[in-house]
Amino acid sequence: MHEHSATSDYVWPTDPQVLEKLDKWQDLKFGVLFHWGLYSVPGIVESWSICSEDEDWISRKKNLPYDEYKKWYWGLKDSLNPVNFNPEQWAEVMADAGMKYMIFTTKHHDGFCMFDSEYTDFSIANGPFREDPRRDVAFHVFDAFRQKGFMIGCYFSKPDWHCEWFWNPYFATPTRRINYKKERHPEWWEKYCTFTRNQLNELTSRYGSLDILWLDGGWIAGEDIGLDGILEQARQRHPGLISVDRTIRGKNENYQTPERGIPETQLNYPWESCIPLSNDWGWVPNAPYKSAQKVINTLAEITAKGGCFVLGVGPTPDGVIERGVVERLHAVGEWLRVNGQAIYATRTTPVYHDGNIWFTADKDGETLYAIYALPEGEQLPACMEWKGNVPTGKMTLLKGNKRLKYTVEGEQVKVFLPEGLQNEPVVVQFRKTSK
User: Fold this and answer.
1) Spatial CB neighbours of 399, under 8 Å, sequence gap ≥ 6
2) Whose CA is closest to 302, among 251, 364, 387, 371?
3) Sheet architecture: strand order including 30-34
């Protein structure tokens, strides 16, 4: 699991509108994070192949010297031409999957903008797609999801490896960080900060209502670019805007973002696991997608531990969601249409896990849900067993609203499942015994 801020580092916001929006966001539970850019054309890891750090997960498909590779990568700007760009299809697929919020990557670390920025020509609006009426793709993606009632999130990378004021051409580019000393070249850094502020002000002023500003690149602290001032202006336009200054401990990290993993224990403050559907965030050919059952089980665990789950999806180079993704997400949505009561608008309960079972609770804290996260390749058992969360009164299987028989011996609960159930995760609803 990638680094994220420690539990002790979380700082609760003091703005009541931010707190209100966070509470609404915590009700949504399930969202999508889109990575789409230059890297989508050849189907490679997003941005990182132009970083020269010697890491096993930073690989290059082309056997080129580093400087030649960067030139090839930058040249992909002349190849990204999503003639079938269909944000309405994206929104339909994700709504069908039961997702409730979205985050779109407007700019990744490579600096290529998926919006029409006034401050650089390095964008989709200045390549082969320039003549298309939808060349400002971020605008149309956000609009399509607003039409479906989604909460809208804007991903933006604070580092920009294409900008000369971040990776200055006078020096080599040995790491992900700026390639010069700020104290020796303060004017370069100030130009970079101004450039970044200008782009963030563009996004928060010209792209309609926003709910989340999701800032990546934790090796740049928000205060370095003047994030306090940016957010003050942005919240005048978007009251309650959630700021996610990833891995930067403090007041501007309104929720934490463990990446590619799930915290070991329940956390009772706002957080979100970001996990891709395949092994990569962007589109790659013949991707090994996770199964719908894996996604459902992951959602159950994250919800029981108090988080939200944003699933990474990469649209194809020509601008659609491919069939393998659609099929898996439809199956997730089918499950949520029956069992979503155990996920949406729930909160944590002290006893939240036993074996393959995850527990969530309605906001009253008395109505509980036991989600049996059926492991892949196993058969649904004849009965569910757990310790604690002793039920009282009737117990119901959410699918079909069937009343279930159960026994209690001390703290041990045994619930008998009816025959003929589909071999998938199941949910039972009950009220727990008051202490």
Assistant:
1) 338, 339, 421, 422, 426, 427
2) 371
3) 242-245, 212-216, 151-157, 101-107, 30-34, 308-313, 272-276
The answer to whether the beta carbons of residues 151 and 213 sit under 8 Å apart is no
Tokens in use for 271? 């957080």
pLDDT in tens, 359-395: 999 998 999 999 999 999 999 999 999 999 999 999 9
- Is residue 33 a contact partner of residue 101, using CB atoms and an 8 Å limit? no
* Residue 253 DSSP code: B
Please identify which residue in the block is written with the tokens 């729930």: 346
Amino acid, res. 398: L
Q: What pLDDT is recorded for position 435?
A: 63
- The 3 state secondary structure assigned to 128-178 is CCCCCCCCCHHHHHHHHHHHCCCEEEEEEECCCCCCCCCCCCCCCCCCCCC
Tokens in use for 160?
């920009």
Supply the pLDDT for residue 1: 41
Per-residue pLDDT reduced to its tens digit, 270-311: 999 999 999 999 999 999 999 999 999 999 999 999 999 999
- CA dihedral (141, 144, 146, 151) positive or negative: negative
The residues, ordered by sequence, that sit 6+ positions from 334 with a Cβ below 8 Å of its Cβ are none
CB 138 within 8 A of CB 112: no
Between CA 65 and CA 69 the distance in angstroms is 6
d(CA 80, CA 258): 31
Indicate the pTM of the whole model: 0.96
420 Cβ contact list (under 8 Å, min separation 6): none
Q: Which residues of 197-236 are buried (b: 16+ CB within 10 A; e: fewer)?
A: bebbbbbbeebeebbbbbbbbbebbbeebebeebbeebbe
> Helices in 258-404 by DSSP H: which ranges?
292-304, 323-339
* C-alpha distances out from residue 259 to 4, 50, 57, 274, 311, Å: 8, 21, 15, 5, 11
Cα(301)–Cα(312) distance, integer angstroms:
17
CA distances from 97 to 25, 30, 136, 213, 295 (A): 17, 9, 26, 23, 11
Q: Cα separation of 307 and 300, whole Å?
A: 10
Q: In this structure, what token pair is assigned to residue 6?
A: 């420690």
What would the two tokens of residue 340 be? 């979503």
Rounded to 5 degrees, what are φ and ψ at 430? Answer: -160, 170
